[in-house]
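Appendix C: a fully annotated inverse folding record. The material below is reproduced so that readers can follow the format used throughout the book. The structure is listed first as tokens, followed by the designed sequence.
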């Protein structure tokens, strides 16, 4: 399913997974698979970009929680970017915001990541928000 449901962009060992507008029971398994696949490919940092997501149900929350568990077991940091009040409310009500860093912008999330994960990975002038930077991860 990789690449069909979510857009994945890499810069070094930083991966951004752009989630669909609605993360519900119909797509949650695919979202979970995409996030876990990125983690198992060796990402040091994964951002679940929900900036365009306007709806997330309990299946979506479960997908994020499972991805977080897998990431944590491998030493990978998973963060979420969302601007939608409804999505943020669901993440807060379920307590997921206590496990996963939730940020209002990609820039805020990038600034919060450990410098060792970012060091040498993003070249001057490159950013994940500025377009398609689909680079192969370092192996």
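Designed amino acids, in order:
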């Amino acid at each position: 399913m990789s690449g069909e449901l979510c857009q994945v962009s890499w810069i070094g060992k930083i991966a951004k997974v752009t989630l669909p507008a609605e993360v519900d029971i119909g797509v949650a398994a695919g979202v979970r698979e995409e996030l876990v696949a990125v983690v198992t490919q060796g990402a040091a940092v994964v951002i679940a970009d929900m900036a365009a997501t306007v709806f997330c149900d309990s299946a979506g929350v479960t997908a994020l929680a499972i991805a977080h568990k897998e990431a944590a077991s491998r030493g990978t940091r998973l963060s979420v970017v969302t601007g939608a009040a409804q999505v943020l409310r669901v993440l807060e009500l379920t307590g997921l915001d206590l496990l996963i860093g939730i940020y209002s912008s990609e820039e805020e999330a990038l600034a919060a990541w450990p410098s060792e994960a970012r060091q040498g990975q993003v070249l001057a002038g490159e950013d994940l928000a500025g377009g398609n930077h689909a680079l192969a991860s370092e192996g």
